[in-house]
Design brief:
Rossmann fold, 12 helices, elongated, alpha/beta, binds nicotinamide-adenine-dinucleotide, 309 residues, five-stranded parallel beta sheet
Length: 309
Amino acid sequence: MAEHSALICDKVDPILPKILKDNGIRVSYEPEITPEALLEAAPAHTIIVVRSRTRVTAEVIGRAASCQIVARVGVGLDNIDTAACEARGIRVLNAVEGAMNAVAELVLGLMLSMARQIPRADAAVRGGRWIKKDLVGSELRGKYLGIVGMGNIGKRLARLARALNMNIIGYDVVPIDAELSREVGLVKADLDTLFQSSDYVSLHVPLLDSTKNLVDARRLALMKPTARLINTSRGGIVDEGALYGALSSGRLAGAALDVFEVEPATASRLRGLEAMVLTPHIGAQTAEAQGLAANVIGEKIVQAVRGVT
Ligand code: NAD
């Protein structure tokens, strides 16, 4: 195996540097590296590893003359200029498997938070208010969950939601796994029908030209006034201006966002809406998901440098 040197640019589970070192790959662990320092360090490495903090721009790729692999310890490749990598013949690896269960469980948490008003209940008790009478919630059992994007996370969510006796409606641009459909009793629908029929709509598509503002004012207007929207996929898939309008006018009962058009979303006006649950892009932020993603990406890098895949 040729000499390899990996530059790990973000904080990762310790299992990743261990796997690389155990397989003869030199490792520079720089979890706080600045963009300037990355440009300086890039030429010395054959492998660049990032999570979501570090951006692998065309400029970085231009400087990384020996680079053969860029690896993302996670799913989305938004922070990597994949076109620049492709133009140089650099392999781009990611770890889809890590986040599946973590994101699906977060969706359950967000649905339950809205159905039982858990954030409001918690804030009230902390504030010395016992508002039990105001907190009549609803149950997930028997409700219709529309899942947009039946890939890895959508499928996992379908299984978990079925275990809570929810009814699953699915939509994807590619055929939906027939075995899974049978297993969870999934009903396929076109996108507008899914929005019209669901009590909860959860988004699990990548951000593409075709999915940008997929949930706009027209689609929000199709939803039942009692329905709720959850986005744990990518900011930009929901038109936040239109969502603000639908929630503030009472057209829609609630929404939960883990991802935003602009992150960090610490200045978003959505923060002022009580009908919202907001989380800071924590979908894959579990110890288990980080460990699994680090393991998967470590193995993929080792296989790639050995020429196995
Ligand atoms: P995946 O590639 O397995 O599945 C995506 C599915 O979306 C595919 O089945 C694809 O056919 C479908 N799709 C594409 N365009 C579509 C369209 N226009 N309409 C309907 N379906 C369409 O991806 P995944 O691993 O399930 O991830 C889904 C999303 O979750 C991605 O956006 C990913 O970036 C995001 N994600 C977020 C977090 C987080 O921290 N919140 C963590 C991991 C992943």
